Amino acid sequence: MSNPTQLRCSKEHEWLSAAEDGVSTVGITEHAANALGDVVFVQLPEVGDTVSAGETCGELESTKSVSDLYSPVGGEITEINEDVVNDPSLVNSAPWKAAGCSRCVSPTSPPTC
After folding, report:
1. Which residue positions does N6-lipoyllysine occur at (predicted)?
2. What is the CATH number of domain 7-107?
């Protein structure tokens, strides 16, 4: 699947959805998911954490390597995707849909994508 047109992608291969009511969803691209191989562990920021654009905010572990997850926008984490934490294979099977990792509100810095 190619990049859905409603998403913006960073050079680190994270995606950012258009803000709905000031809240955007962040995930990783299909390209990144394929490069990682089978994802077996996902570490995400906590709800209430403040993240900065372009900075590390989590980690993805696959059968090949461990990769940092970068935030493409700054703001407060309002929700994390527990489904991805409980079933990391969703990162590989549905990177554009079910694998949105977290939601961020009130961006404090512009997107890096």
Report:
1. 64
2. 2.40.50.100
User: For residue 19, what pLDDT is reported?
Assistant: 65
Residues in the chain: 113
What's the rounded Cα separation, in Å, for the pair 15 and 4?
10
Extents of the domains making up the chain: 7-107
- What is the per-residue burial (b if ≥16 Cβ within 10 Å, else e) of 76-109? bbeebbeebeeebebbbebbbeebbbbbbeebee
Q: Could you tell me the CA-to-CA distances from 68 to 5, 20, 22, 56 in Å, in that order?
A: 25, 26, 25, 6
**Per-block mean pLDDT, blocks of 10 residues, the chain (113 long):** 59 70 79 88 92 89 90 86 89 72 56 52
Q: How confident is the prediction for the chain on average, in pLDDT?
A: 78
Q: Which amino acid is at 111?
A: P
Instruction: Quote the CA–CA distance of 91 and 31 in Å, as a whole number.
Output: 11
Q: What is the pLDDT of residues 3-22, one digit of tens each?
A: 555 666 667 767 777 666 77
